[in-house]
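Handout, page 2. Input:
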Amino acid sequence: MIDCKNAGEKIHEYLDGSLDEAARRELLGHVEACVSCRARLDQWEQAVSALEGLRPIEPPATMLHQVMALVQERATNPKLVWRKLLYRVFVPASAALGLLLLLLPSSGLLHLFSSGADTTVPTSDVTSSVLGESGQALQGLANQGVDLFDTMLTSGAIAQVGVVLGACLILLAAGVLLWHLLDRERTRRMLRV
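Output:
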């Protein structure tokens, strides 16, 4: 049995002509009994008949030639070729390089430069007796933190981070400059507004 919730979908299918005969009869029976669904069907029928009454619009005869001329101009315009190169090659390549430079210090390669000195924090008997295994786990985490900090200091990781940030800023500035050079007119329009 169709209720008002299902009637909305069925009305669309009815107008499309995709309802089978049994569902069509069931929908029409519901629409005859339900005033709101009858009003909805009448509105949709009016909208469909109004759309069917519209005549197709013919594009101007010169439109095809204008579109083809624009396509050919864009294919041969060196500014647009460089813009495509900028967006398809330079931006992804600079993003990948920046990401690589950011991830390099944390990739584990820094341990190759560590001094090898023992920087573990001494375990106290009080910590071990009070916290038991939890204390030993916390102590291990503390040792790892000290090892990491010592490794960063001895391997020059802080300098590497500075180099990475500098390289990212240079890449960003180069990208903005290249974008400005390739699209001066749009930049001028943006600055005027």
